[in-house]
Amino acid sequence: MQTLKSEIKEFLTSRRARLTPGEVGLPLDGTARRVPGLRREEVAELAGISVEYYVILERGDLSTASEQVLAGIADALRFADAERLYLHNLARASRGVEAFPVAQPEPRVTGRIQSILDGFTLGAAWVRNEYMDILATNRAARVLYEPIYRALPDRPNTARHVFLAENARSFWIDADYYADAFAAKLRLESAAHPRDPRLKSLVAELTERSEAFRSRWATAEVSLLTNGIKRFHHPEVGRLDLHFETMELQSAPGLIMSFYLPDDAATARGLAALRQQS
To answer: In CA terms, which of 6, 65, 198, 270 is 20 to 30 Å from 88?
Structure first.
């Protein structure tokens, strides 16, 4: 498994490599560049720290980095929200502090949570954990995700389905996009929960069994994946385009509820037909 130091180094160097001096407002000095992207001294200048200190950080030791230093690096490297969160979680892990306690009890889907799912009749609704396990659904989500349940009866999980299931590409219209997104989401979780045995086991399984996952994990991309459009090809009713929104459940930390609404009339009809079949 990848060490924390190598994860930090890989992340910062890859983000430095994707930027050019012109993109961050620095003039070109006319000298040849041995590597793509910004030089360490340029990142240090933009972040307002010494080159020597930035070298220590990029080599994988964020234990002494203050919130101000982390914010400076994030600004210098033009980080998106997910990347900022990932950097702060890597720093916490470097200091031996997890973003969330590893020993917290397993969150449960209570009867009240299930009643909220069942009461949502305009579309599909479901609850997952940080590992992307499908824990509870309303009727529409259960029939929508039937191909996932059929392919992975031992552990219905959207990330495992995209990377491991034979029917994934026939079900997920944008399979490559969600392969990118799910790997990036799991990488973000890995920094928040670096000692979580279930997360380590999932990443190890996907790494061992899927070249597509290994190649995406190596990019060091991170993602929040909170809303958007998901497009499916369901074997019973054909194409379904669904707008989704997600929310963390304050009453059950670690659980995420997602709501899917049809994005067009054809999808509304298809989802209604699925509900009638269940």
So the answer is: 198
| Contact between residue 77 and residue 16 where contact means Cβ atoms under 8 Å apart | yes
List, edge to edge, every strand of the sheet that includes 124-128: 134-137, 124-128, 256-262, 238-248, 227-234
Q: Which of 264, 102, 124 is nearest to 190 (CA)?
A: 102
Parse the chain into domains and list their residue ranges. Answer: 4-95, 111-276
- pTM beyond 0.70: yes
Helix H or strand E segment including 148: helix 146-151
Q: Can you give the pLDDT of all 278 residues of the chain as single tens digits?
A: 578 999 999 999 999 999 988 888 888 766 767 777 999 999 999 999 999 999 999 999 999 999 999 999 999 999 999 999 999 999 999 998 765 555 556 789 999 999 999 999 999 999 999 999 999 999 999 999 999 999 999 999 999 999 999 999 999 999 999 999 999 999 999 998 888 899 999 999 999 999 999 999 999 999 988 999 999 999 999 999 999 999 999 999 899 999 999 999 999 999 999 888 76
CA distance linking residue 63 with residue 13, whole number of Å: 18
Per CATH, the number for 4-95 is: 1.10.260.40
- What is 111-276's CATH topology? Beta-Lactamase (3.30.450)
